[in-house]
Recover the amino acids of this structure.
């Protein structure tokens, strides 16, 4: 950054939701902090600076700080995003941060995504239903590279919860699978190693908690940090749910 | 947490690949397994492994002739002969099973496409005809320090795909995972471990978990290098610190710290070795491909320690690129083309866009060697059982098993987590099935009260002491400047002194926030003394080791010295001692005689004892250091015959 740009460094004002459920005296409120913007500053840097220099009690989650672990989903000026890869330069001087809705609050910006995703995985049985037990002496089952690539595309979800938080249905129906859940189902559905058939899948995704519960606002696709093709995923699920015969005709 | 003491058969600390794979093996054998994890398991740092997992399947043309024995040889050479060769051999033999098992769990490995495939090799675009009969088998990409293409991969998200598949198996088996829980101390009576004291990172409450067997699977200690690491913020070596704090269990080779050649500058985010494996170049400020001259044979694909040293030398010689955040070099993958970068290296493409604002199809990537991997860790025998403590195991990066010696090859850590997870998990299950739960609640309550006392000391301390974050940052600066890639006695001595000052300051540090709940500052404060102690073991181990081996490079002792230093550093820290104590043991039974690695320097100080004499000393020497008897005899799984070697 040039001297000229540095001289125009902004003073950022953070308005952050605060509430500590573990503190009986805590009431939800909006706290404000100001810091000087630095070149290439991310919300990861900014929030750590605030915690380390202004309020050591501030709660938030980061782990990888490289947009792959999915820990740091938060509402940034009303929109779900990963804090670690959000540059302050892309935001106005006033930055409002809230915890993701639709998840249980742990404190301040920290929410319990782990329990939500474990329950989703249990409910949809999000694992390969093996056709035969693993034989450690056999070579691997063959698979075309195109199918492997298609499965990988669905496998890229990092379970950050941004799609869930943005979902009009998930925010009123806690049982709705939402983008991440539906995407995970589709990922196993297209995997030739999974033994489940269409009737099995019908039970998982055909109801109002599944793909037909989606009202089509598609905010999930707008906010997904991995840019997963959720529109195509839902279309695939709807068509598969109505039977492969339909697809083949 | 309603109850202060809970129990299970097998307790695993850490929900990454090694811990989860270990828990799966125990649960499948009928043991009740419980995993404690700082984060939801899918957020563990295993998910950050990008480029590949080494296993000698030999499925593509450039992997032709590969075998576990060739993989074993590469691993031993990579380790600069610091590895336990039996463990390296077990690893190489089991790695293909681990890769295929992951395929069974659902990992979408990239597959062989029969027919013409375009690759970049040694700077040339090459077309290779993959035989149609291999169509659909798991394919490989090139990585550093290997004789054959061996890394199995799923784009540049291999760790992510592996972790999700393994965690789905954990869910399938119904294994209990308690996320946002931190292990604070081990419960033990001096000879046997019976669980841990843990702290809930949601509520701040303490509880004890009593178990027949306890497994440390907490990953590496990269965060003692502050921000100069590729590691996640959760990799501060908590498991190694737990073991060190017993005063009984030694840590092995703590000075063996790997620097990855290509971390994005300045953020330190990893850019996979797969970039160079797929044909990427390193360039200096004059856009000169300096690795061709430095390592004519392997070029950019020498081992990480060697490439990182050439890069740092380049920067020190004034050929680095100036930037406001210090000097860096360039990684050039433009010639691979946008299609390759947005499929096989998609995660690299995203990281460049998100964290450097560049498109690697058009732009050079600013990179710099950065702390990446901890070869050192809790010293265990080949079953994963800790020296000196029955019922305590360690696995994965947290352990010093020790297949990596002084330098790990790229792609070998992902493979280690799964291979070792299976093997150690089976040993843990067998141990647990043959023992009763030692529900000595008096020990547990005592450990709980010690932990709470330590927390109260933090909460009650007042004054004008430094903040824990300042001390953390100061530690990172000491480590990167004095215990980095190029080391020397004066700097290392200075580092020991400075870390001692930080330890003293830590005991006077004052919390800024003392509110109820998990309290993020308190949680960090409880980690900091362990980080400082680990840093001290790294610095002291490096100061004492007067040679250069693998990633440990002493400018004042630039040669590998097999006469005096063909050994493993062990370090223990007695509970009230002011400093840790170092000792040494033989690396293990030697099968491949120490020689030239095939890259890097060919000069060294030769062994004086004969190999048979060296080997005859190993068992007694290791038992003196507390090695517990393994299920199978030492040496039973070394490469046996010439036939097997083929």
């Amino acid at each position: 950054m040039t001297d000229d740009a540095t001289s125009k460094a902004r003073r950022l004002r953070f308005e952050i939701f605060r509430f500590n459920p573990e503190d009986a005296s805590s009431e939800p409120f909006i706290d404000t902090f100001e810091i000087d913007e630095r070149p290439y500053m991310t919300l990861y840097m900014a929030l750590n600076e605030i915690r380390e220099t202004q309020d050591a009690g501030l709660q938030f989650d980061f782990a990888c700080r490289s947009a792959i672990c999915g820990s740091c989903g938060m509402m940034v000026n009303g929109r779900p995003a990963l804090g670690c890869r959000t540059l302050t330069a892309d935001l106005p001087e006033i930055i409002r941060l809230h915890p993701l809705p639709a998840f249980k609050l742990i404190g301040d910006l920290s929410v319990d995504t782990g329990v939500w995703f474990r329950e989703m995985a249990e409910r949809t049985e999000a694992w390969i239903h093996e056709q035969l037990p693993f034989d450690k002496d056999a070579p691997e089952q063959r698979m075309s590279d195109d199918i492997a690539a298609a499965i990988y595309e669905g496998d890229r979800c990092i379970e950050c919860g941004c799609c869930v938080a943005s979902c009009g249905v998930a925010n009123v129906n806690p049982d709705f699978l939402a983008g991440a859940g539906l995407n995970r189902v589709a990922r196993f559905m297209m995997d030739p190693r999974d033994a489940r058939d269409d009737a099995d899948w019908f039970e998982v995704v055909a109801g109002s908690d599944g793909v037909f519960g989606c009202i089509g606002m598609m905010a999930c696709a707008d906010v997904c940090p991995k840019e997963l093709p959720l529109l195509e995923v839902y279309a695939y699920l709807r068509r598969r749910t109505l039977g492969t015969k339909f697809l083949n005709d | 947490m309603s109850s202060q003491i809970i129990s299970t058969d097998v307790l695993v600390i850490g929900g990454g690949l090694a811990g989860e794979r270990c828990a799966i093996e125990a649960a499948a054998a009928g043991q009740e397994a419980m995993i404690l994890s700082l984060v939801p398991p899918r957020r563990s740092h295993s998910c950050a492994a990008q480029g590949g997992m080494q296993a000698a399947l030999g499925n593509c043309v450039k992997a032709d002739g590969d075998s576990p024995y060739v993989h074993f040889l590469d691993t031993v050479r990579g380790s600069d002969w610091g590895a336990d060769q039996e463990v390296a051999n077990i690893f190489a033999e089991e790695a293909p099973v681990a890769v295929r098992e992951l395929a069974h769990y659902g990992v979408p490995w990239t597959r062989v496409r029969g027919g013409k495939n375009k690759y970049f090799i040694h700077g040339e675009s090459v077309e290779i005809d993959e035989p149609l009969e291999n169509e659909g088998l798991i394919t490989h990409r090139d990585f550093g320090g290997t004789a054959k293409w061996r890394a199995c991969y799923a784009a540049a998200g291999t760790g992510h795909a592996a972790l999700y598949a393994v965690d789905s198996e954990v869910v399938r088996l119904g294994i209990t995972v308690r996320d946002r829980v931190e292990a604070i101390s081990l419960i033990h009576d001096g000879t046997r471990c019976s669980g841990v004291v843990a702290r809930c990172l949601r509520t701040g409450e303490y509880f004890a978990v009593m178990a027949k067997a306890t497994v440390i699977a907490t990953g590496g200690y990269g965060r003692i290098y502050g921000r100069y690491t590729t590691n996640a913020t959760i990799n501060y070596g908590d498991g190694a610190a737990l073991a060190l704090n017993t005063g009984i269990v030694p840590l092995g080779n703590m000075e063996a710290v790997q620097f990855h050649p290509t971390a994005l500058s300045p953020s330190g985010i990893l850019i996979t070795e797969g970039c160079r494996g797929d044909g990427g170049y390193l360039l200096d400020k004059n856009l000169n491909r300096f690795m061709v001259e430095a390592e004519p044979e392997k070029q950019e694909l020498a081992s990480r320690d060697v490439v990182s040293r050439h890069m740092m030398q380049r920067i020190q010689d004034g050929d680095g690129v100036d930037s406001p955040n210090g000097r860096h070099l360039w990684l050039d993958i433009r010639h691979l083309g946008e299609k390759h970068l947005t499929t096989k290296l998609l995660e690299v493409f995203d990281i460049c866009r998100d964290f450097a604002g560049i498109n690697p199809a058009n732009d050079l990537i600013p990179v710099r060697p950065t702390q990446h991997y901890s070869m050192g860790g809790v010293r265990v025998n080949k079953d994963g059982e800790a020296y000196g403590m029955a019922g305590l195991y360690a696995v994965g990066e947290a352990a010093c098993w020790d297949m990596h010696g002084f330098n790990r090859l790229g792609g070998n850590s992902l493979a280690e987590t799964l291979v070792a997870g299976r093997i150690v998990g089976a040993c843990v299950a067998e141990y647990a099935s043959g023992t009763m739960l030692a529900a000595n609640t008096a020990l547990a309550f005592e450990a709980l009260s010690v932990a709470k006392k330590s927390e109260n000391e933090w909460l009650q301390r007042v004054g004008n002491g430094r903040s824990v974050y300042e001390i953390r940052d100061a530690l990172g600066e000491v480590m990167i400047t004095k215990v980095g890639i190029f080391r020397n006695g004066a700097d290392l001595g200075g580092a020991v002194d400075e870390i001692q000052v930080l330890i003293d300051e830590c005991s006077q540090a004052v919390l800024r926030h003392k509110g109820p709940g998990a309290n993020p500052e308190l949680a960090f404060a409880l980690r900091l003394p362990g980080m400082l102690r680990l840093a001290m073991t790294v610095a002291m181990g490096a100061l004492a080791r007067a040679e250069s081996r693998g990633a440990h490079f002493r400018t004042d002792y630039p040669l590998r010295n097999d006469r005096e230093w063909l050994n493993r550093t062990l370090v223990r820290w007695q509970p009230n001692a002011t400093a840790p104590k170092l000792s040494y043991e033989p690396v293990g039974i030697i099968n491949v005689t120490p020689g030239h690695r095939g890259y890097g320097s060919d000069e060294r100080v030769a062994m004086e004892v004969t190999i048979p004499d060296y080997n005859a000393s190993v068992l007694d020497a290791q038992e003196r250091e507390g090695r517990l008897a393994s299920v199978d005899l030492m040496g039973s799984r070394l490469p046996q015959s010439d036939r097997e070697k083929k």
Summary: Chain A touches chain B through 65 residues (CB under 8 Å).
